[in-house]
Design a protein that fits this description.
This protein is an alpha/beta fold. The protein folds into two domains: 73 residues, no CATH class; 155 residues, Metalloproteases ("zincins"), catalytic domain (Zincin-like, 2-Layer Sandwich), CATH 3.30.2010. Helices cover 36% and strands 23% of the residues. The protein has a four-stranded mixed sheet with strand order 1-2-4-3. Strands 5-6-8-7 form a four-stranded mixed sheet, covered by helices on one side. A three-stranded mixed sheet has the order 9-11-10, covered by helices on one side. Helix 3 crosses helix 4 and helix 4 packs across helix 6. The N terminus is likely disordered.
Length: 258
């Protein structure tokens, strides 16, 4: 799965691109082409949990050449799409009622919604449960309270893990600015100016996966794209990054479910 850490860099133009389709066996695969800078050679293929296929290619690349590059990965794309479709069959939108299961730092907690007229509204984590107290049971209000709780927790956890990961990122001596922003298809990003942005949903993942995303972004402070040098640096500072990414990818559809 490929939800993890797609990076917003100046080499990717995020404006809507052209749509292309081709036949792979009995399946039609369609993708949206986005442009990259001319000095970036490779083609990036991303399959999203909602079954969108996005291809980033150099702006001056011929459409047929891009199509051929995507065709070569058709088998992999088909498997990703099949996996996501199967996941969608078993996943339903959350109702934010008692009995649902919600994640925090890789562990599952049962949601318990309680009416409490005389107590402050909010969320508490108690004995394996996430207890939401509010004046009157209202799924929309439960969703908001829980979302706010995740964002507050995410800020504290991310700053703590960032400080720990800076001990491995010897190329930087100061803590980079950190922002928390909900993103649909990314766990994190690193701006050209060096600001890290992390998805609050990431706080639902195991700590080792959070560390992977943070260190991934820290590597972009010195290598601003996914070049061979970038992955060599990441491998040096986190030799098991691929296992961590695989674990995060496998959980992504559940962590992003709202």
């Amino acid at each position: 799965m490929s939800v993890a850490a797609r990076i917003e860099k100046p080499d990717v133009v995020t404006a809507p691109g052209e749509q292309f389709c081709f036949q792979y066996g009995d399946e039609q695969i369609c993708f949206e082409r986005r442009s990259r800078r001319k000095n970036v050679k490779n083609v990036l293929i991303k399959v999203h949990p909602d079954c969108r296929v996005e291809v980033s290619a150099p702006a001056d690349s011929d459409d047929n050449a891009v199509l051929q590059a995507v065709r070569k990965r058709a088998g992999w794309i088909s498997l990703q799409l099949q996996d996501f479709r199967q996941q969608q069959e078993y996943l339903c939108a959350r109702e934010y009622i008692s009995g649902e299961s919600h994640f925090y730092l890789g562990k599952q907690y049962l949601l318990k919604v309680l009416e409490a007229e005389r107590e402050p509204e909010g969320v508490k984590m108690l004995r394996g449960k996430l207890e939401v107290r509010l004046r009157q049971k209202d799924p929309a209000k439960v969703k908001k309270l829980l979302g706010d709780w995740y964002k507050t927790r995410a800020k504290a956890v991310f700053y703590r893990r960032l400080n720990t990961m800076l001990e491995q990122a010897l190329w930087t001596t100061t803590q980079p600015p950190l922002a928390i922003r909900t993103m649909q298809t990314q766990w994190g990003s690193c701006s050209p100016g060096g600001r890290l942005t992390l998805n609050p949903h990431l706080v639902k993942a195991p700590t080792e996966c959070i560390d992977y995303v943070i260190l991934h972004e820290l590597c972009h402070l010195v290598e601003h794209n996914h070049s061979e040098r970038f992955y060599r640096l990441l491998q040096q500072v986190m030799p098991d990054w691929q296992q961590r990414k695989t674990r995060l990818d496998a959980m992504a559809h559940r962590l992003l479910l709202v």
